[in-house]
Amino acid sequence: MIHAVIYISKADPGFSKGEVKEMLLKAKSYNRTHEITGCILYHKQQFLQLIEGAEKDVRELYRKLVEDNRHHEVTTLFDESSGTRIFPNWAMAFYEFEEEEDSTAHTRLQLDQILEQATISEGNKEAFGVLERSAERLLAQGQHELFNTVRRLFGD
Fold first, then answer.
1. Mean pLDDT by 10 residues, the chain (156 residues)
2. Which of 4, 13, 43, 143 has the greatest count of CB atoms below 10 A from its CB?
3. pTM confidence score
4. How far, in Å, CA of 41 to CA of 38, rounded?
5. What GO molecular function annotations does the UniProt record carry, in alphabetical order (predicted)?
């Protein structure tokens, strides 16, 4: 059984784009070794991440992520068994939505292109729905509005 965790967090203000890319390379290596897949979206100093794999491995990775000081205000959006992987071929897909690409139509098109690569099944459609709705909110709202909305929907 595959377990999935989806969370949002705020990047530390000093966390540079170069450091984000370095983190991603290490994450891909770790994830391949532990058979973890998923994706991470980065927009306006915010992360939205899905990690999926064996429950033990996902929980161990998530514990490490929560303790990582490169981001804060980690908010869990989904933490359940999901049947099958949403992104079975991605050790960790990454997409950074650029500030200058901030038009609604453009960012929606980019998000659609990412989500079209998902493998959706009866077992993982709830997790996919949380990921899709959270990604839409991430791109559509300002930083404080997003976190306030998520907290209202999912609690602290």
1. 93 84 86 92 86 96 93 94 88 63 60 80 89 83 47 44
2. 4
3. 0.80
4. 10
5. blue light photoreceptor activity; FAD binding
